[in-house]
Amino acid sequence: MMLSVSSNNHVFQSLSHSLTNSSHSLSNSSSHVLSHPSDYLFQRSIGYAGSGNRIREKLAKASNGEDIKIGVLGGSISTGHKLEDKSKEVYHSVLFDWFTSKFPYGQHTLVNGAAPATGSSYFTYCHGKHIPDDLDIIFIEFSINDGSIYPTERGDGDPGITKNMELLVRNLMQMPNKPAIVFLSFFSFKVDYYFNGQEAHMAIANYYDIPYISFKNAYYDHHNRFPKDVSTLFSSDEHHPNKEGHRMMSAFVTRYLESIEGVKAANTPDADIPLLDMWTTRKHKANFSELNPFCETFMDKTYQPSYMDGWYLMNWKKEKYYIASDTPGSLITFSVEASKGSVYMYILKSSQYDLGSVWCWADDDRDNGRELSGHWNISRSIGHMMLVSDSLSKGRHDIHCQVLSGDNTHFRIIAIFSG
């Protein structure tokens, strides 16, 4: 979604007072007194400040009248789910109004590439389907959808979350305009766990010197103490922030940006990004190579697989797009380009919808295929990355999937990708 320069003066005028006023009302409603609520909450919201060099460079360009292109990657929060007026109330629209008011001489652009019920693993491979490669600033919001690297009763505990987010960050930072990235972290009051994707992402923020602004840091403890205050910042589902929650996140970000603007940049090495990823040791440096992602997604409504029999395109409220089947034996074939030999399917995982399983294999090697199950005993329904093959030769391959018989036979595929 492309947005040109716009103004929303009443939001912008109130933004400078939002930290103090909102924090004061929260404190009064619960008798939880903070001596300097705006300063306190702002300081708490900074999960990692870093040097700010990349984002400061972009602010300097904007101050000089240059055009700045801002992008957003995230889940349903970044699409504005549960807001009455998404175009004005979602956090990045409020941020964009502030940006265009502060830097009025450039023709600035906002591109919202967010997609509901997706995590960073999807965008690791498919970001090119959602955002252009000429962005200057990118906000990334996946703290809820990515889940925790620590085990919880929700079924969390996957270190692959950190690996995929890092791959995404390395790809984004190598775009032509060397964009500045800012991590944003929300939390769900409904989920009722402290741990989420924030902890999976924090190591990346440190390693790549990326600012991390956390709504969770500022408000999680408060809502544990005063749960009746949840409607102040959350919508009726207690999962997605309401208008005020979005406004407060934008206030934290704008205050951070204002705090670093004009500050002398720290001396840094000439390298744009770290030489190696976080997982590669020095002795294996010669074997390291960057990810060259390949993606085909049904969010791209023009995409058609190579072959399908018994499958149909499906969309949910024009927000979520799948290729789906209900019939055992239904076959679908995708043509993919493998660079490092791995192919993944991104499917809907849920305890609902009577989801069954498919058998997927590469080329003619049906016997060494894998069963992918859409069902899990976890409360959330979300896209999930599943390995099909990790031993393919470099080049083009056909990936086949067939619906298996069983009590449940419904299956939904969101995307297929490889690297």
Automatic annotation (TrEMBL):
Query: Which CDD domains does this UniProt record tie to the protein?
Result: SGNH_hydrolase
The UniProt transmembrane annotation reads none
Q: Which PANTHER family match?
A: EXPRESSED PROTEIN, SGNH HYDROLASE-TYPE ESTERASE DOMAIN-CONTAINING PROTEIN
Q: Spell out the protein name for this chain.
A: SGNH hydrolase-type esterase domain-containing protein
Organism for this UniProt entry: Umbelopsis vinacea
Recite the lineage of the species. Eukaryota, Fungi, Fungi incertae sedis, Mucoromycota, Mucoromycotina
